[in-house]
Structure formats: structure tokens, C-alpha cells
Amino acid sequence: MLSRLSPQSPDKIIGLMQQFRADPRADKIDLGVGVYRDARGRTPVMRAVKAAEETLWRTQDSKGYVGIEGDPAFLEAIGTLVLGDAVPAERIAAVGTPGGTGAVRQALELVRLADAGARVFIPAPSWPNHAAIVNFLGLGEAAYRYYDAAAHALDLPGLLADLETTGPGDVVILHGCCHNPTGAELTLADWAAIAEVLGRTGALPLVDLAYLGFGDGLEADAAGLRLLAGALPEMLISVSCSKNFGLYRERVGAVLALSPDPAARDLVRGNLSNLNRQNFAFPPDHGARVVTGILGDAALRADWAAELETMRSRIETLRRTLADRLRDKSGSDRFAFLAGQKGLFSLIGATPDQVTAMRETHGVYLIGDGRINLAGLSENNIPKVAEAMLAAGL
Ligand code: LMR
């Protein structure tokens, strides 16, 4: 039976992670997978996480099952963190999931339960797993323009024109903030324009929120999706706590589904619960409980927000430092866009051959589409990365 399986090639991000680990060069630089790194290249356990874990270890007296939707206190805390008071609680159905990927998967499975023929509009470009999951589930895949590669900027007219072609049977994936892979952000006015179009076409937004806090800060990064939530009757949000709580391997995520009224909310909640039951039964609890402990304790929450802000501003500094170095070494402003973009990622405009040359000659690892993770930079390695980029002909 199992010999009938077809070989699978790893996702390009996961494949690069494996390649990097196998590279024996001591001075290799990982600008691949989207994890935060500090100045020493480590992905730290955040202070508030350590403290909340310690409390949990001391006080938790059972590892018995929690509800199929996850811990209600976690779902309430994450709903408030993401949505603030943009929508009343009776519009929200929420379930815990294994990480943000689990949340995207559950949200798209919910779509398939509602309409197996749904088309999912994905920004061009996007996180590769969006299209992979859409295709795996047998949903229709469509693209909308998002990024003008020549201008290194958002293509708002293209985006709006393409969203005009959507209809009630369609889903539109939007990145809540820190667009992956481009770092090109939507302004609040852009979100308002999207809300206006989707309000007319009836397409359902699925907002993927994996980097809350890494763009302009916790509140500013949630403002766009909150605007959308207040303007439209239905919306799905996939939330990840991997990056902003540094809980990657603990797999902490949630789906928030917004409905127009409590009866519709209950229908959605029942379907989400059933999907959890089918796919993994109970969502992982340890990391979710750590998040709840942090968000529910004023001192821990303040410390977490402060550490996240340090991480966010470090990435901003690294963006500026790399852009400055490239300007000095190239004598041109063609990399100035790096300083203005947001979050962990930017596309440096490298061809696949240039990506290979940077990896093979200089040990600088980036995704094949030219995406770099700015958090993989440090004061020490920026000169080498800039040199590798220019030597590759960028
Ligand atoms: C990334 O884009 O590198 C991260 O979101 C990690 C992942 O799961 O792909």
C-alpha cells in the first residue's frame, strides 16, 4: 500500500532550513525561515514566557483534557488581543489550533465545508503554504495582484481591480500585517478601500495574522483587520503566537470567525469544533496557557510587550543599517526600499541564479524567490550580506 505513495518535495522554506543545517561553513548566514533572532543569532525564550511557564509548572495540577475548542480563557484573551473592542463578543466563534499553519488549515477546511467549490484569492506573492493548503484541500486557487516588483512597493490599483472580480463564493487571503514575503504594507486607507470592495462583492476575507507586533506595534498592526471586522458581516482570522510570543515549537494558534449574529456564530462554532475533533481533537494546551497567563497578568503583559517592542525596533534598525551599507557600497539608492518596509521579510529582487550564487559562494541563505529574513541579520554580518548581494550582481 504505502509503496503507492508519490515522492513529495519539501516546501521551499523547510527545504532551505534543512540545507542550512547541513552546511558545515562556520560563517554561514541564515536569512531563510521566518524566526526572530537576537544579536547573538539566537531565537530566545521570552522573559514573560519563562515566568508564565514557571507559574504554570508550580500551579498546574492536572494534564487532563480541556474542551475541544481549547481553553476558553485563551480564546477570550487572544480574541481581545487581536480584535480589541472592534466587534461584540457574540459575533466571534474561536477555536485553538496547532500554530498559525493549523489555523490557516482549519479556516480553509471551514470554507470547504461551507462551499467545496470556493475559490481562494491569494496575494501574488504570498507565503507558499497558502497555495499549498488551498490545493491540498481541492479548493480553487486564484491570484490577485499585490506587489509591484519593479517599484518594490504595493500595487494598490492592481489589488483593488482584481478584488473587484471576486464574488460571494470567493475567499480573499490578506496578511494582517508584515506581508510575507514582501514587507509591503497596507495603510489604513488601503484597508478601508478593500473593505468597501469586499462589502460590495460579498467575498469572504481570511486574514492571516502571523506577525502581530512586528510592523508598527501591537495596536497599529491590528488596526486594518479591526476596520475590516467592523465593516463586514463575516470574516475569518488565523492567528499565530509563534513569532510574537516566541512559542514556535509549542504550536499556539487560533481561528477567529466573525458572523453577523449569535445564531450564525453558533453554527460556525459547531463546525469549527467538529473540524478540531476530526483533525486532532484537542488543540495543544501548554503554550496557549502560557499566552493566557501573560495576557492576564498586568506585569507579565507589560514585560512581554516591552520585549516584543525591542525585537520590533531591532528589525527596523537592521533594515536601516543594511540599506545604508548597500547605499554606501553601491553608490545608489536602489535598496532604500528595505528601510521602509515592515516586519521580518523583504524581497531583494534576486533571480534564482543570484540566490544560488549568494548561498554557494558566500554562505548567505535566502529563499529562492529572493526573500530575506531581516531578523537573521546582525551588526556583524551585514557587511558580508551586502557584499554577497552586490557580488551576485544585484
Ligand atoms: C516563514 O514564512 O518562514 C515562517 O512562517 C515559517 C513557516 O512556517 O514557513
UniProtKB/TrEMBL annotation:
InterPro entries: Aminotransferase_I/II_large, Asp_trans, NHTrfase_class1_PyrdxlP-BS, PyrdxlP-dep_Trfase, PyrdxlP-dep_Trfase_major, PyrdxlP-dep_Trfase_small. The keyword Transferase applies. Residues 27-388 form the Aminotransferase class I/classII large domain. It comes from the Bacteria. SUPFAM superfamilies: PLP-dependent transferases (SSF53383). It holds the Pfam family Aminotran_1_2. Its EC number is 2.6.1.-. GO terms for molecular function: transaminase activity. It is an enzyme of class 2 (transferase). Keywords: Aminotransferase, Pyridoxal phosphate, Transferase. Its cofactor is pyridoxal 5'-phosphate. Homodimer. NCBIfam families: PRK09257.1. Belongs to the class-I pyridoxal-phosphate-dependent aminotransferase family. This is Aminotransferase.
